[in-house]
Inverse folding.
């Protein structure tokens, strides 16, 4: 099966061509993917712009998952 590399928080993840951001998140960390889907963690692209989990990825895409909302205040 052909795959393309994308990067989630600096970790290389292989996904099928045409995969969605949500697919890469699940491959990287299923719990983080659930938190993003629930709106508990922010999701951005390589420039820091908001990213929709249903967006299609291209080879080499960079996705960043932020800390859980309120986590910074707890630290």
């Amino acid at each position: 099966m052909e795959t393309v590399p994308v990067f989630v928080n600096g970790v290389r993840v292989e996904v099928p061509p045409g995969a969605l951001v949500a697919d890469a998140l699940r491959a990287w960390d299923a719990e983080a993917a659930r938190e993003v889907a629930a709106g508990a963690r922010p999701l951005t692209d390589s420039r820091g712009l908001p990213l929709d989990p249903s967006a299609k990825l291209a080879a080499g895409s960079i996705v960043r998952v932020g800390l859980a909302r309120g986590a910074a205040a707890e630290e």
Observations:
- The radius of gyration is 12 Å.
- The mean pLDDT is 92.
- The chain has three helices and four strands.
- Helices lie at 21-28, 30-37, 71-74.
